[in-house]
Amino acid sequence: MGEAEINSKGKRWSLNGMTALVTGGTRGIGQAIVEELAGLGAVVHTCSRDQINLDSCLKVWKSMGFKVTGSVCDLLHREQRENLIETVSSVFHGKLNILVNNAGMAIHKEAIDFTADDISTIMVTNFESGYNLCQLAYPLLKASGNESIVFNSSILSVVAISLSAIYSASKGNFQLI
Asked: Exposed, middle or buried: residue 62 (CB in 10 Å: 0-12, 13-18, 19+)?
């Protein structure tokens, strides 16, 4: 590998000039994804349901020199997803390179104890919201000319446990073509 292929951080590649939206980016895997993308040079926008947590993360990321913006969004609500994509379009001037559908939630109960509301909440948050974000972001992704969509899945999509039956169903692998 030639020296020209290694950037200043010793990485083999760079995301300089790329834009990314990461849902649920203020905790856990989502936070790690935001930091990795920003560390590789991408400009990132993330969302969280919690303004205080979002503000705290944004402050830390700014101190690390990362270019990260964020907004409050509860992906359970279609209108908030629409507002999120409008915000992303504005922040990234109508272009988006990377959409990471990371946000997810689980309710742990025995399969027979799930209510209709439990099922709806899990399926909308973990499946419908991501699919809808792909639809909403499609014009931005195509405008970038270099687009990628990532859905975070779970091993529980293939190895179910009784306390997470609906979560398991919501986190299956699928491919968008």
From this structure: exposed
Residue 2 lies in a domain: no
The rounded distance, in Å, linking the Cα atoms of 164 and 137 is: 30
Q: What's the structural domain count of the chain?
A: 1
| C-alpha torsion 78→148→19→100, nearest 10 | 50
- Distance from C-alpha of 172 to C-alpha of 127, rounded to nearest angstrom: 9
Q: Specify whether 138 is catalytic.
A: no
The residue range of the domain holding 74 is 14-170
Q: What is the pLDDT along the chain (177 residues), one digit of tens a residue?
A: 344 455 555 656 899 999 999 999 999 999 999 999 999 999 999 999 999 999 999 999 999 999 999 999 999 999 999 999 999 999 999 999 999 999 999 999 998 999 999 999 999 999 999 999 999 999 999 999 999 999 887 767 667 677 888 778 887 755 554
Residue 20 pairs in a beta bridge with: 44, 98
Look up residue 43 and give its two tokens: 């400009």
Here the CATH number for the domain that contains residue 83 is 3.40.50.720
Q: Which of 27, 77, 78, 33 is nearest to 48 (CA)?
A: 27
Select which of 57, 124, 167, 171 is catalytic: 167
138 within domain boundaries:
yes
